Amino acid sequence: METAITKRAFCENTVSLLGYGCMRFPEKDGQIDKEKAMALIDRAIAGGVNYFDTAYPYHGGKSEEFLKEALIGRYDRSRFFIADKMPLWDLKEPADLEKTFGIQLERLGAEYIDYYLLHALSKNLWQKALDLGAPAFLDRLKAEGRIRHAGFSFHDSPEVLRQILDGYNWDFVQLQINYYDWRHGRADEMYKMCEERGLPVIIMEPVRGGSLARMHKDMVKIFTDREPDKSVASWAIRFAASLPGVATVLSGMTTMEQLEDNLGTLSPLCPLGKEEYDAIDRAMDVMDALPVTGCTGCWYCKDCPKGLDIPHLLACYDNYLKFDNDYHIRQRYLKDTPPEKQGSACVACGACMKVCPQHLPIPDLLKKVHALAMSMAD
């Protein structure tokens, strides 16, 4: 008998602790593979998932349309909640708020949206939101019943988050939280700000785009020794879900295997205890001790005479080592970075070393990164 998925109270509703992030559906020939994606939707609904998170640009603007066909058109609206987002970066004038929202309702085939967010707020986008009159627009949508609750997703510093939290009467916040960013990305500070205000938190990127599902073998061993029958990814999902102020944990599930693993992890949730938190700390200690380049991404080296993005190049190596994922070399370095901007273009002029606060031997490190990339080139 299947155990029911854990649910939590969220803005007068009860939502599943696992939310479906609708930005990574399986694709075929560059389009959403409807047969496979519908099977995922059906399994999610059957498993008790009732929170579906989409956005204007997901899948090239087709995610909303797919939900109209696969979810809204096939299930009673009482069985699920829709979250959608306003792409402020695309807007030029206040009238674009209404125009864009109208497009979203049409794509979804819906009369209202349960949870509506200003998408990916940062310092600059928050100022743009104020200039466009977005807070008043959200108030109007709520008064008209076209949205039920207003929030925002966020990508910036705790200092900026505080300004935004104090700038409007928000119903909820969506943050990137995972155990890596908890230690290295100030996610703990941002979560606590919301907790202090009593604001529910929606978590995005709990597995950090898949990075916390694949990592260095010594880190994996810590998790598998503790729970040999559990996936490495499940530790990241449980870390996020164990935070009491979290309403739902979003996961962009592409495969049935990922969906089943997440359903198993949260049906029901077994919150992390001291021994599990200690295991995560030990795994992070292993990561921090890996022989990475030491680059902190401070960008003091930005004036490279050859125009090299040195932090990016070194990050490709560091992330490959930390997460045991060759994507960082094969895609981000070899394919996304033009040959004239790769490490081989370094002329060892020394300009970067003169300004590096960490006193790194950057030319030697760039040679090391490039040599690794060439050994992996197809």
What does this protein look like?
The chain has 378 residues and is α/β, with parallel strands linked by helices. The chain has 16 helices and twelve strands. An eight-stranded parallel barrel has the order 3-6-7-8-9-10-11-12, surrounded by five helices. Strands 1-2 form a two-stranded antiparallel ribbon. It starts with 6 loop residues before the first strand and ends with a helix. The mean pLDDT is 96.
**Shape call:** globular
The largest beta-sheet arranges its strands as 3-6-7-8-9-10-11-12
Q: Tell me the strand percentage band.
A: 15-25%
Helix content: 40-55%
**SSE order, as H and E?**
EEEEEHEHEHEHHEHEHHEHHEHHHHHH
Main β-sheet, in a few words?
Answer: 8 strands, parallel, barrel
What is the total tally of β strands? 12
Poorly predicted regions are none
For the record, give the distance between the C-alpha atoms at the N and C termini, rounded to a whole number: 48 Å
On the 0 to 100 scale, the average pLDDT is 96
The number of helical elements comes to 16
